[in-house]
Amino acid sequence: MKSTFLIIIFALFSIPTLVSQAAEAWRVEPDFRGKKARNDISGAACGPSRCIVINDETHFAQEFTLNNHRLTPGDRIKLADKGEEIDAEAIAYGDGQFYITGSHGLSRKKGKDRPATFQVFRLDGDEITASKRLREAIENAPHLGKYAGKRLDKNGANIEGLAVKEDRLFFGFRGPSVAGEAFILETSAVALFSDDVLDPKIHVLSLGQRIGIRDMASVEDGILILTGPVNTLPRDYTVALWKSGSTRPKTLAKIPTKGKGKPEGILILSESDSAYNVLIFMDSSRNGTPFELAIDKF
After folding, report:
1. Using 50, 70 and 90 to split pLDDT, how confident is the model at 256?
2. What is the pLDDT of residues 201-224, one digit of tens each?
3. What is the mean pLDDT of the chain?
């Protein structure tokens, strides 16, 4: 009886804290511009003096400011010609520059190969540069290559996360999920936007059956990963800390879901010795319905 009791207590303290009670809604005033854009927020990132939000349905990103639990949208940033859907799925800031990546995947419904989605953009002030080199790296990468020509609903390769550490770019894949494992492709930012050898590196993460990476954000000790289903099930979303070289990210919190919205983006607001304060953005929800979470590190 005593051993059973100890097992139960250990299990209770091993369960990641549910964070729904700590959630604090933020306002977005006025709306982000464009119905498709504001209903399909896919990520956000901030530098010292600039914040940018992206969506997966249009050809532009949009600046915004943060103040007193409110997001205020600003100027739009044209990334491609109108009507050219780049399927922007992730954004990250590092070393004075923003990076935005397309999904590098086929369209979900019809399996169309849309060249515009196979790009990574670099924003250096007002200068925008695009690279198409990542596609070949994915197609030739171990674990990923044979899934590169498949739709997401067929477990195809599809990027949804991006983080920057010094000169290194880390691309997190929503799919494929193979035997409970998800994947991150790491490469040099300088090489991606030059003729240097990319020399990509694949990281294999044990996330669970049919679970992939929905977004990423760089923190002091590693990279926070927002995890979730490759497709629709299981509806299990978490925030985990991954350190390069590890195969098992540490789950820090579970994110309960309501309605049809899906956790799709994570933005670091602040980091202390004991906790991360983050904003979570929801896909298929007006303006991303951002809400703040305080996530304990331990």
Report:
1. confident
2. 999 999 999 999 999 999 999 999
3. 91
In percent, the amount of the chain with pLDDT more than 90 equals 85
Task: Answer whether CATH 2.120.10.100 is correct for domain 17-296.
Answer: yes
Contact 44, 281 (CB under 8 A): yes
Name which of 170, 217, 175, 169 is nearest 193 in CA terms.
169
| 8 Å CB contact between 216 and 161 | yes
Burial of 58 (0-12, 13-18, 19+ CB in 10 A): buried
What mean pLDDT comes out for the span 240-257? 94
In angstroms, the CA 78 to CA 65 distance is: 18
